[in-house]
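Batch 3, record 17
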Amino acid sequence: MSEREVLELLRENARYSTEDIARMTDLEESEVEAVVEELESTGVVRGYRAVVDWDRLEDEKVRAEVELNVELDRETNYGDVAERLARFPQVKALRLVSGDYDFDMEVEGDSIREVSMFVSEKVAPVPEITQTVTHYVMTSYKEGGIELGDGDEDDRLSYTP
Amino acid sequence: MTFELADRVQAVPPSGIRRFFEIAEERDEVISLGVGEPDFSTPWAARDAAIASLEQGKTSYTANRGRADLRESIADYVADRFDLGYDPDEEIIVTAGASEAVDLAFRAFVDPGDTVAIAQPSYVSYEPGVVFAGGEPLPVPTHEEDDFRLTVDALEDAGAADADALVFCYPNNPTGAIMTRADLEPVAEFAREHDLLVFADEIYAELTYDGEHTSIATLPGMRERTVVFNGFSKAHAMTGLRLGYALGPADAIGAMNKIHQYTMLSAPTTAQYAALEALDSCANDVREMVDQYDRRRRFVLSRFREIGMDVFEARGAFYCFPEVPEGFTAEEFAEELLREQGVAVVPGDVFGEGGAGHLRISYATGLSELREALARIEAFVDDHEGPE
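Prediction for the assembled complex:
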């Protein structure tokens, strides 16, 4: 139970200090540390990173969602294709999905040209891949569960009964 | 020509927090721990239902007692969550906030000169409500050594045996105290023995941590003498929609409805559609908000202990109730804290006897604001700490 609670808090904000998490869960700091260590060592928690609103930076990144269709043979499975694609640093997320296409791939680059070249020169030539459809991200409204708008001002009165 | 105020209006002093509000308005960047309402928005499904009802032009009065389907949903909900059985046709009335339900009950059952015992510290409107109804409030102070629970000793000490009615709110605003079934049983016995009507404000019932809420109306012999108040403001984050309800025996609810139909007529229609949807599909939203409050509660309690301020182990609502350090009254502490550090808290005196020397701290605000506010309180306490 405490593992789940700590995990939820880390997902809410990975920068919560051990001290904060301990206070919120009534655990000792050493217990929180042990839970986090366990979550990390067993691979449940794979890493921590910032949720970025690229639109607020001048040198914004170009991102694309790429749909991939694959055709497998007897010697190749989805995992083999995924392993090959996931190694490219441009690929930020890769998921096998149900529906009209097989893989949903998130690609990031410095320019539209860079992303296009990556898809056409590195991804499309993979023998099992039969089709790629690239969707460039125009605006992000929510990332990692966090809304990227300015947020609602707290317009409550300072004192209410 | 000047308006001459009615005696019962003159008898009620202005709200104790008004002066603080004016100071807070003058300052920039006040972090407010003085709010008695959720910082979450009303769940989207409920908002959508309200919007859809407007788009469909559903803006007429409803039945005086509230929409029949909403009363049915309320009956199902209170049966499921709190083991309360009420007939939606005759034993439930939907009101403009739980506050209206409280006012209706006082006006329906309090005659001039009747005494209403009020467990204090308490929500600020009970005492004025009794006075507006022509009755006489009888404060029943509760104490930290009893975990701010209402006890028979407290009732006897205050002379509540001679009262006509008793009102209390658990989980409690402002202390965060709760009453378990075992705590309620002697109070119920006292009410039966002395033939007291009981008004049980259970608006914070969902916000009970480490256990289940028990309604006094579920205890033997209590249903027939109790009116229960509840609503959507707190657990469903719908304060501004103004929707509450009362549960009670048919004749009691009928009497309240008589006043309601001549004054409010019916609760806001748009809000009733929102409430119907809230009960139908927002249980998960409620649970998520309650989980968040619980984490903040633990955080705030832990920080107060670290700061060195004695703090009551609040187990309900979204308030905690620390003691002010020696050398301050609660009012002085709250005012100086607001002026020096820009943190708004409410002095416990505002909530009546038993609240003196304490502060009401609302943790219905985000963790980063809470962290900052507690750091400022710590700095304030350190600055004013006398020599060892």
